Amino acid sequence: MLTKHDFAEDIGEDLLFRTGRALLTGKAKEFAACFWLPTVVESLEGVAHIQTDHELQNVYQNVRNNLQTNGVKNLARSVISAEYLEDDIIGSTHVSQRLDKDGAPIAKPYPVYSTLKRSNSEWRIESSIYAVLDDPLLNKALSCKYRTIF
User: Fold this and answer.
1) Inter-residue contact 28 to 60 (CB < 8 Å)
2) Are the C-beta atoms of residues 100 and 72 closer than 8 Å to each other?
3) For the chain, what percent of residues have pLDDT higher than 70?
4) In sequence order, what are the residues at sequence separation of 6 or more whose Cβ sits closer than 8 angstroms to the Cβ of residue 100?
5) Which residues share a beta bridge with 76?
6) Stretch 60-68: mean pLDDT, rounded?
7) pLDDT the model gives residue 49
8) Residue 1 has pLDDT above 60, yes or no
9) What is the 3-state secondary structure (H, E, C) of the chain?
10) What is the CA radius of gyration of the chain?
């Protein structure tokens, strides 16, 4: 029997699939369609309060450039926990692993906690907190909203 918890995980997995595909294929509009604006992205570099499409595009391009610079060819990401906090809000934790062309890990996996929000029957990411411990440049990419760093 399916529970509300199962649907929360499915929603999180769908957003992971769509954002991952967009990062790997260069489809910035697909990526942007997964986020509400304003959105908040937090990393070890600090908190980015992203207000505009332009700011979101800069973070997207910085993260995409970081992936390319490090030879990332695939992302293995999966929800490890997701639950409804309210009827239209889900708290979701996933683990992200960056992989090379042979499927080997490039760096240690890291957890991400995201708040997913539904509006007009559409689920998008409202905020994310990244715990990347071994890649200072990825942390910079996540927090840099005004300029391209790569």
Assistant:
1) yes
2) yes
3) 93
4) 71, 72, 73, 106
5) 97
6) 95
7) 94
8) no
9) CCCHHHHHHHHHHHHHHHHHHHHHHCCHHHHHCCEEEEEEEEECCEEEEECCHHHHHHHHHHHHHHHHHCCCCEEEEEEEEEEEEECCEEEEEEEEEEECCCCCECCCCEEEEEEEEEECCEEEEEEEEECCCCCHHHHHHHHCCCCCCC
10) 15
- Could you tell me the CA-to-CA distances from 86 to 3, 6, 90, 136 in Å, in that order? 15, 15, 7, 34
Q: Which two tokens stand for residue 60?
A: 């997207």
Taking a C-beta distance cutoff of 8 angstroms, is the pair 57, 28 a contact? yes
Tokens in use for 64? Answer: 């995409």
Tell me if the bond preceding 105 is cis, omega within 30° of 0. no
pLDDT of residue 28: 96
CA quadruple 14, 20, 25, 30: dihedral sign: positive
State the pTM of this model. Answer: 0.92
Question: Using 50, 70 and 90 to split pLDDT, how confident is the model at 76?
Answer: very high
